[in-house]
Structure formats: structure tokens, C-alpha cells
Amino acid sequence: MITTQAFPTVRAIPRSAWNDCFPGALEDWDYYVAVEHAAIADFQWRYLAVFENGTLVAVAAAFITHYRLDTTVSGAGKRLTERLERLWPGVLQLGLYAIGSPVAERCDAGFASDVPQGRRPLLLQHLLQAARQDADAFGIGLVAVKDAPANDPHWADSCRAAGFQSMPSLPTGVLPLPYGSVDAYLGSLGKSTRKDLRRKLRAPGPRVEWRRNIDDVLPEVMRLYEATLTRADLQFERLPAGYFTGVLERLGERAVCVLYWVDAQLVAFNLILVDQHRLVDKFFGHDVEYTRDYNLYFRSWLTNVDYCIQHNIAVYECGQAGYASKLRLGCEFEGNSLFFRHRNRLVNTLLKVVKIFIRPDRSDPAMAAAISET
To answer: What stretch or stretches form a coiled coil here (predicted)?
Structure first.
């Protein structure tokens, strides 16, 4: 007998059972505990569980928020939607119940280790049904699956069978690193990019410090975070200070914050998750007044590349932004999909039209190139 349940905290599911469903995940049970404790504004957390004869067989994180339909739009399209929002406040906002997480790299459903591949589509169907029922209990019409891997046929098939629409989401940048040195990596890049990076490396650089505790510099870290967030075209959530300190505390050796100093001035920071297989870039914040003189983004990039090479880490996962730079820097891109359905047929039909204009590849040529690669 299969049953489902939705919980308000990941602590309702035993740590070992959750992590068994996500073997080797950096964003594991402890990560979600840190996220909960951070109390990110405007988000409510949900955790969906599927049981078979009382035994946990599948889980997924979910969240509730108010979603702006133009969240993934940038450039001229963003300016247009902002004018529309000023004319009709709230016209682009809908209550949203989404499987996935605003602070996880991708949406993954987890399955108990003894669940065979052939049963996973059925369990995904139950997760989708559980999401719909939980959303109904909160009076929310729009249910979505955020950033499901585009190469996962189970997600696509299950969502289509449930009547969900689909559209491309922001692709994830990935840099494979089969190189013996940073110089060998640079040699793999285009001539102009290679020359530019080598010139930047010859210039004076900031002092680099690796930290697992940033309590003493937290106000400066948050100043850099807020300044970077203000300049960003694409941002779904606003992270409080407790997110950064909580992730570092809960994940121990698997989380680190890299600080960049010019004399006694903190000019950039980079929160990363890392294990023996991959390094995940979670957030890079920097002071724009120092960025050009010290090439802070590229310095941070090459610092992470060097760390991966020195520690035999095969993959640098670099997130869902800055596609123009990442194309130059040799990244590959893993496609993600957004699936959604509104229970109101009229609204659902309207969203079919709206999605034509809010596709992320409509407004950013570099993003379009990254999506086309996937």
C-alpha cells in the first residue's frame, strides 16, 4: 500500500533515511536544516514523502512562495515587465507551490536505495499528487517542478502524464577539469580568453583566505552580498546572514567561504560546497569598486579551478548565472526544465500564452546559447 505525507520540516524525516535517498549529495539533510534555521523571508518549506507499507521509499523538498512570472527574464524583457508591474501591481505574481528548492542547485526526487529504476516513475506520480493535495490545503492553484534535470525522462514523462506544461529553465554551468595544472586549463580555452586571463594573473591580486567561520567578518560579507544582489538581473530569493553561517556550521568540512582581501579591506567572498568529487559555487559577492582593478570574478574562478586541480576534484559546478563569461571559460551546460500546472483551467490556458514571452532564452543571447547547448 502506497501513502504520502507532507511535513513542514526535514527533521520529521530521519537523517539517515533522507540521506539514503540522496547518496553523496552535498545538499543533504544537514543542508536543509541549515536552510530552515536561516528563516529565508517569503518562503515556507515543505517535504514530501512516499511510503510503501509504512517504509519510506521516496522524498522531495518543496516550498511555497509568491512567484513573479518574470523571475527568469532579463534585459529589455525585464524592463518591460517591471513597467507592467508598476501599472498593475501584482499582475505578474501568483501563489506557487514548487517541488525543488530556491537554494538547491537542481530539483531531485530521492529514492530509497532498494527502489528499482522501474518503480521510480510511479513514485514520482505519487510525489506530484502529494504536492497537488498539499497545495490545495494551502489554497494554492499553481504547482510546479523547479529545475528538473532535462535529461531525466522520468520527470518529463510523469509531469506530462499529470498534465503539466513545460519550458526551459536556467541551465547549470559545469566545468570538467581533466587538467594537471591551471596553465593546462588555460591552454584549453580560446586564444583571446587565454591571453586575457594570463594578463590578469600577472597583475597584482587580492590576498586569499579560506574560512569555515566568518562570524567576525559577517557584516562585511553581508554588505558585499547586498551590493551584488542589487546588481543582479536574476534573483529568486534574498539570503539572510544566518544562511551563510548556518551552512558553514552544519556542513563542516563540506562548506567553506573564500575571502578576498585588499590590505585590510574585504573586497569579495565566495561560499562553496565541496567534496572529493565536485566543488559547487553557491554565491560570489564582490565590491564593484575593486572588481575591475583586481579582476575579482576571474581571480575567484581561477582560485576554484586551482583548488579542484590540486585536490583531484573532477567537476566545478558554477551555477545559473553569468552565462556569457562561462561560455568563454569553457563551461558545459546541463539543461533544466520547469514544469507547471494551475488547477484553474482559464489561468492554466493563460500561462500557456505567457510562457512564450517569459522563456529565459528570449531576453539573454548568452543564456539562449547555453540553453541551446543542452
So the answer is: none
pLDDT at residue 366 tops 90? no
Q: What is the pLDDT at residue 91?
A: 47
Range 132-137 average pLDDT = 97
Residue 350's pLDDT is: 83
Is the fold of 2-171+336-373 the same as that of 173-333?
yes
pLDDT band (50, 70, 90) for residue 107: confident
Out of 3.40.50.150, 3.40.630.30, 3.40.50.2300, 3.10.450.50, the CATH code matching 2-171+336-373 is 3.40.630.30
Per the document, the length of the chain is 374
Map out the domains of the chain as residue ranges.
2-171+336-373, 173-333
CATH superfamily of 173-333: Gcn5-related N-acetyltransferase (GNAT) (3.40.630.30)
pLDDT over threshold 90, residue 170? no
- pLDDT, position 75: 60
Considering only 25-29, 32-36, 157-161, 322-326, which range has the smallest mean pLDDT?
Answer: 322-326
